[in-house]
């Protein structure tokens, strides 16, 4: 317990308190020996990141209880209805394989705030395999993870605005039951416009 507390930057007393509150899962026991693993450290770092962001222990406890009760990952992540995105379950080691030493408490907290990451028992869940692959590819190209997450926040703002624009347009001119069916049309428009915008921007940068 002392080694885990030291690695997490907390006191053994705080660790014991977290365990009593159900904020971390119980250790694996062999006789009188209690074994804590990497998932315990990941959970403690998640708690620290959430506390830094202003979350209360009661709120964190409620979230932990929701995960431990076996609620659907999509529901916990706020996805609601079925989505085209595929959530990915990762161990802390697998997350480190994607992002290396850039898996800091600050970056972890930002990813939690954005809804990209959540804890599900002993695993970390990323909301989208496509976003995971793209963000890890950008990091491999030398873009800091903090910068990737900062850009993601801006993209989220613009994406939400585009979603409102298209749903309002379709609800005004189509039947409500047709809005979901016409969703691919909105995605095609955004894909095409983004492609054209990137072409224009690259020409500007090259002086063309």
From TrEMBL:
InterPro entries xrefs: DNA-bd_dom_put_sf, MerR-type_HTH_dom, MerR_fam
GO molecular function: DNA binding; DNA-binding transcription factor activity
Designated name of the protein: MerR family transcriptional regulator
Domain (HTH merR-type) ranges: 1-66
Keywords: DNA-binding
Superkingdom field: Bacteria
């Amino acid at each position: 317990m002392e080694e885990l507390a030291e690695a997490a930057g907390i006191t053994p007393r705080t660790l014991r308190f977290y365990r009593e509150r159900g904020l971390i899962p119980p250790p694996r026991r062999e006789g009188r020996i209690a074994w804590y693993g990497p998932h315990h450290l990941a959970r403690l770092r998640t708690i620290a990141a959430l506390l830094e962001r202003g979350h209360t222990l009661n709120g964190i406890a409620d979230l932990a209880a929701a995960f431990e009760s076996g609620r659907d990952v999509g529901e916990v992540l706020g996805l609601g209805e079925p989505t085209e995105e595929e959530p990915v379950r990762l161990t802390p080691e697998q997350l480190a394989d994607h992002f290396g030493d850039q898996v800091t408490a600050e970056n972890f907290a930002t990813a939690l705030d954005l809804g990209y990451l959540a804890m599900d028992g002993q695993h970390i869940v990323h909301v989208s395999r496509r976003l995971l692959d793209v963000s890890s590819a950008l990091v491999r190209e030398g873009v800091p993870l903090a910068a990737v997450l900062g850009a993601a926040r801006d993209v989220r703002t613009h994406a939400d605005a585009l979603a409102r624009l298209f749903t309002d347009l379709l609800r005004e001119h189509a039947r409500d039951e047709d809005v979901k069916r016409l969703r691919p049309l909105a995605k095609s428009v955004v894909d095409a416009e983004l492609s054209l915008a990137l072409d224009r921007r690259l020409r500007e940068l090259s002086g063309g």
